[in-house]
Amino acid sequence: MTLSALPGWGSRPLGGSDLQVSPIGLGTMTFGEQVDPAQAHAILDHAVDAGVTLLDTAEMYAVPARAETCGATERILGDWFTQRPGVRQKVVLATKVAGPSRNMAWIRQGGRDLRPADIVAACEASLQRLRTDVIDLYQIHWPNRNAPVFGALYLDPAKDAEQTSIEAQLRALAQLVRDGKVRHIGLSNETPWGVMAFLREAERHGLPRVVSVQNPYALVNRSVDNGLDEVLHREQLGLLAYSPLGFGTLTGKYDAPGFDPSQPSLGRLSRFESMRKQRWARPETLLAAQRYNALARAHGLTPTQLALAFCYRSWRVTSTLIGVTSLPQLQDCLQAWQVELSEELLDELDAIRWDMRDPAQ
């Protein structure tokens, strides 16, 4: 299978940085779990040949997180770089340091704080696994504080605890930038308050400014539109949108009422029990996805085309991170770039959101 560069492709600046990224990036969290190294390398080859220049990973990948696969995705990427001389210089490489433990005792002994020394050590370990001298975008995977993320709807002040400050986190990241190990820094799974706090501390102390935020953005989770989009716009930050297909719910494969968990071929939500407990598998999410998927079909589109075109064409999004487990999936995601959505269809999407809100928030 050969995939050529898509019409109108081009690159975009990531926030106020000097990084130029493709409007579609490749997320790699399935590499090392659902995707073996050989298949991962084939996907990477075809994605780069098609014009993808942004690759995103994390120290904790593959997903679902297990001690046995922690770091596997970065190692797969590192092997690929080694076997493809010159390709490292063609891509923007992004990875992440895990935040405080979310029941992952194999990362920093399950520590509940992300200390400056942890950030530096994690970066150096990622550099070794990735077999590179520098990381283009180094991100904090989730907040090092009590915050409503990963499906939590409300802040509970009673859960506040003393943890490493944002200033101290920035100083550790600044050290990595000074040492030439990191070019730019970013955040992930952040709230509007968190983004503004990082910007304020950077300005106050003359520390590196974050250039991007990697948060979920999909038809079933448009929480970015609830205030974070204004922060991104006015502060000139890039949005790296992840899970644009809502963990597969916006492909139509889970549309049958009460999808059967005994059919792992459907995808992650059916294959991994731990993922069926997440926001993406809520009954409300599945119901909303069914409505969006039906709307796509009524307009002569596949559910995948509608969901991806929505992200691809949003002014909020700098690059949409697609996650695939096969070359046909990669081709479908890239070809969706050519889909245009009418104002009428966008209005219909907003009408469903008004009814269903953001069930996968």
From TrEMBL:
<dbReference type="InterPro" id="IPR036812">
    <property type="entry name" value="NAD(P)_OxRdtase_dom_sf"/>
</dbReference>
<dbReference type="GO" id="GO:0016491">
    <property type="term" value="F:oxidoreductase activity"/>
</dbReference>
<dbReference type="InterPro" id="IPR023210">
    <property type="entry name" value="NADP_OxRdtase_dom"/>
</dbReference>
<dbReference type="InterPro" id="IPR050523">
    <property type="entry name" value="AKR_Detox_Biosynth"/>
</dbReference>
<feature type="domain" description="NADP-dependent oxidoreductase">
    <location>
        <begin position="23"/>
        <end position="352"/>
    </location>
</feature>
<dbReference type="Pfam" id="PF00248">
    <property type="entry name" value="Aldo_ket_red"/>
</dbReference>
<protein>
    <submittedName>
        <fullName>Aldo/keto reductase</fullName>
    </submittedName>
</protein>
<keyword id="KW-0560">Oxidoreductase</keyword>
